[in-house]
What does this fold into?
Amino acid sequence: MSKSKTGGYKGPYAYQKKKDGELRSTVRYKCGLTNTIQDVLRQRPGWVEVKDDAEWDFNWCDVGWLRENYDHSYMEEHVRICHFRNHYELTRKNLMVKNLKRYRKFLERESGRLEAAKCDFFPRTFELPSEYHLFVEEFKRSPGNTWIMKPVARSQGKGIFLFRKLKDIMDWKKDGTRSEEQRDETQVESYVSQRYIENPYLISGRKFDLRVYILVSSYIPLKAWLYRDGFARFSSTRFSLSSIDDQYVHLTNVAVQKTAPDYDPEKGCKWEIQKLRRYLTAKHGSETVESLFKEIDNIFVRSLQSVQKVIINDKHCFELYGYDILLDQDLKPWLIEVNASPSLTASSQEDYEMKCRLLDDTLHIVDMESRLTGREKRVGGFDLMWNDGPVYRDDVNLETLGVSCFPANTHLGCINDRDKQLRQLLKPFPGQKKT
It folds into this structure.
């Protein structure tokens, strides 16, 4: 194997290319992270870690590595990497909104207002400083409302604050009320200013949002998988609009909540999404909850379609997105943001086990070992929700149902009997007896 002058990777597999029907026996991987994904990769039969500049077949890299190396790398047919080149079109807060606004206009032009209204799932948002004057006009139309400021490219709640007065923004622009550290951090950054959702759905008086996982294995054609597990992240302090400076009230990020004085690391601040679905069903009925989860499905599909034509599709790439969804008291779901590197660090044993399952099933779909046929509608805890068009459940009789009645092949918050499903689906690993 030889390396290109630009530092890319070229050459055959560590194992010989497989014959038809033969499973690959060795996968060389690199991993730039030291959390749960590292454990999952190390436990995968036949996978061998390589270091530094060694040749690799699979790379779970961080976005920094991607930015520095992707354009200079030649990749053989079989190589896989865990990000698309310009993933940020969906995961930077300003670009996500820009693409959604553009897509909404396209739908209105092509299909009418009713279809375009299906994209009305993100709060009014402006990029600052570039859209400052537009923002001021909107701000003055609705005096007294609460707004939230977020850096466009940061995570874990860093740099976020709420405000109700324009002078707070003026102070922010002048660096007057920020610490020296904040000034250094925000001078070169763009922010988004977004209408704060003042009527969130509360459980025990506390605000929460949902973290849901979507795996995109291709953008052209669009092929997206929805994971059955996920969680609701709760604030540690009862919700109130009387104090907009209290992060523990308004931000549900675990990175923020675990610094709260009364945070209990054993209990954490998470519910499994199955528990949340059961709670909502008991309180509002199954029909209402089915409708809610259908609206959440719509958010996933429309947001991916909004960037489908701008993402640089590459057969070597896949992306595991972490979606953050907030429910308001009318049970309307709102898209808050999409994460290209959702946290894989576990906050509890239960969280660790869920993330191990998620990552293991991600690797099953990426399928370095060639154990799948490519026609699967379910792999472990992942259900194929979009494959160049909607995917319907296997038990649907298409002849007896109208198109609008087709139940989607999505099971968010439903039972995840992945072990049983995987035993039926997958050929054993090389040298492993089928149980």
